[in-house]
Design brief:
This protein is α/β, with parallel strands linked by helices. It contains 13 helices and 13 strands. The chain has a 7-stranded parallel β-sheet, sandwiched between helices. It has a two-stranded parallel sheet with strand order 6-13. Helix 1 packs across helix 9 and helix 8 packs parallel to helix 10. The mean pLDDT is 96. The structure holds nicotinamide-adenine-dinucleotide and 2-amino-3-ketobutyric acid. The site of nicotinamide-adenine-dinucleotide has 28 residues, from helix 1, helix 5, strand 5 and strand 8.
Length: 339
């Protein structure tokens, strides 16, 4: 029997990567939801592609009536820069939207009489380091350290991680009868992601993919952070592998609900060197925006991924050099015709 999965935020960067992979899995059928119409090539891979708002309970109820979901990948969100510009809207979409999806997952669990998996992408934005001295001293940060975010987005993500745990373990804990329906909440804290197929918008780690895509297109790029800025990143195919790997892991091996994952952590200057080596005509200048810089400076230089490695065998396929040579360059040369 096929498993039906719901992907919210399906037309976003991760949605593109995830749907392309899920579509290759024989026993999975995909229902997609996004505010924007899904790209035609992706829509062909879904049994149902809905244009709708996760804040609209009617849209979600209609979907839940029409399908039995085994897994929800809840990707829809406003990312850090956009959220800082529209904090109240961000709170609504990122928090209220997540509550709506958790409620739908519970309804589905009740109707189907089984646990529904809820896979949630959180972010390194949940961390908040007070200054660069502390950032350089702490090194690779563990999941329980420095959860003191300074952005609306980071606060939303941290709260939704906790909400997921609540829906999994304590939902309506005062009810006279224990509730049978359960949401199996699983969460990845992603670093910045770099995709060859899509460009980000609205994030603050966007300087890396923006720089690389501009270099490949032969366009000048003014990088909005300093050359010495260092945060973790990973290649999009590895992010998709992480989502699928955590979803597939047996519940017995998971010692926690929230896992750091990552790939590599170059400085912006090191990324520039790699982009210039790949695309010698790259023209990058560094013109830091003090406010966005402060956000990135509060994010860790690296993350400790040992829990994910130990519990469910997480290993990134791509190193930094491998990301350029085996993933970005071939795809971008084809996409932009760059030499
Ligand atoms: P994205 O901005 O590319 O995609 C988000 C999608 O959500 C968009 O297609 C947008 O139209 C949709 N959306 C926004 N509001 C909506 C609403 N009210 N109803 C329905 N759809 C709505 O983002 P992404 O990079 O694909 O990120 C997906 C998830 O992964 C997000 O939760 C994000 O916080 C998380 N994440 C991303 C990164 C990254 O670097 N890309 C890093 C860490 C975590
Ligand atoms: C952002 O910059 O907001 C995202 C993220 C790191 O969560 N890319």
């Amino acid at each position: 029997m096929k498993t039906t999965v719901l992907v919210t935020g399906a037309n976003g960067e991760i949605g593109h990567g995830l749907i392309n992979h899920l579509a290759d899995v024989d026993d999975v059928e995909i229902v997609a939801l996004d505010l924007r119409p899904l790209d035609g090539a992706l829509a062909k891979k879904c049994i149902h592609a809905v244009v709708g708002d996760i804040l609209n309970a009617g849209v979600l109820e209609t979907l839940s009536t029409a399908h039995n979901f085994g897994t929800v990948y809840h990707l829809a969100a406003l990312l850090s820069t956009r959220a800082e510009r529209q904090p109240v809207l961000a709170h609504r979409v990122n928090v209220d939207g997540t509550v709506n999806l958790l409620e739908i997952a519970l309804t589905q669990a009740r109707l189907q009489g089984r646990e529904i998996k809820f896979v949630y992408p959180s972010s390194i934005a949940v961390y908040g380091l007070p200054d660069l001295d502390v950032k350089s001293q702490v090194g690779a940060i563990g999941e329980s350290e420095w959860c003191t975010p300074r952005t609306m987005y980071g606060i939303n993500k941290l709260y939704c991680e906790q909400l997921g745990g609540y829906y999994a373990r304590f939902y309506r804990q005062l009810d006279a009868e224990p509730r049978a329906e359960r949401v199996d909440f699983r969460c990845l804290r992603f670093p910045g992601l770099i995709s060859a197929a899509t460009l980000p918008s609205g994030g603050t780690s966007d300087f890396a993919p923006e720089m690389i895509h501009a270099a490949a297109r032969g366009e000048p790029y003014a990088c909005f952070v300093r050359e010495d800025t260092r945060i973790p990143f990973m290649a999009m195919p590895d992010a998709v592998r992480a989502l699928l790997g955590l979803e597939a892991a047996s519940a017995e091996v998971l010692s926690r609900r929230i896992y750091n994952v990552g790939g590599f952590n170059p400085s912006a200057g090191e990324l520039h060197d790699l982009a210039r080596r790949a695309f010698p005509s790259a023209e990058v200048t560094f013109v830091p925006d003090a406010k966005r810089q402060a956000i990135v400076d509060s994010w860790p230089a690296d993350v400790d991924t040992s829990a994910a490695v130990r519990d469910w065998g997480w290993t990134p396929q791509y190193t930094l050099n491998g990301t350029f040579e085996e993933y970005l360059l071939p795809a971008m040369r084809q996409r932009y015709g760059a030499s």
